[in-house]
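Can you give me the bound-state structure? Components:
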Amino acid sequence: MATRKKRTTTDAVQILYRRYYQGRPERVRGLEEARADDSVARKLTALRLHAGLTQRQLAKLVGTTASAICRLESADYAGHSLAMLNRIAIALDQRVELRFTPLPHGKRLKSA
Amino acid sequence: MATRKKRTTTDAVQILYRRYYQGRPERVRGLEEARADDSVARKLTALRLHAGLTQRQLAKLVGTTASAICRLESADYAGHSLAMLNRIAIALDQRVELRFTPLPHGKRLKSA
DNA sequence: ACCGCTATTCGCAAATATGAGAATATGCCG
DNA sequence: CGGCATATTCTCATATTTGCGAATAGCGGT
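Here's the bound-state model for the whole set.
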């Protein structure tokens, strides 16, 4: 890779990628393994950026629109459906894994 | 615990538990750690039974009805929402963990 | 057989997510 | 500055899930 090949559509995406991950090892680390205990929104954003896609591009792959993707990636959004998450995962060659883990004894709801 | 104390409401639940797990070590194992790569429906059923609850009891904890729980535990149901899964998890003193794992190179959608 | 409890399934109203397009920011680069 | 691409937010119609009650079926014990 010598003379800045051809400026493809991923150009702007790389800008975004640099803007977020350039020189932030801990962020990159949390990206490589998408298994951080992060919020769903952040997981989705990380997944998309890691794939080098814009919201619009991912939307086309998933079969929806950019605004929908934006909604899902919004932090204050809790209305995700497994169906949609699966569609996104498939479009990104991933699998959705769901796991229930017991809560530490400190913050239980009731003793029983 | 000597003389079969008092026959509480959990009596019938224990029957169900026996019916499903009696003498099936692998099922019990998959129950202890709820982290098997099972379908969501089976995970929910296992979680509920492990907590020693009927669908009705769980429904009351969650704030819904038994039929709704039954729907969620039905195998041919793919309309789960993270909101509902979280409600159930909280009622059962659990946490929902979502993870995206890359698909093996064999069964990709497209090369890019 | 009956009774009690469970699970499953049906129907419908209400709440919510999605699909879609347009309008408004924000940031980057020439 | 002026394009250009992105991300975000808004509004609407449609699709889907949820809430709830009732009706049915299955199973176990008396």
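A couple of observations. The first strand of chain A starts at residue 94 and ends at 102. The beta strands of chain A are 94-102.
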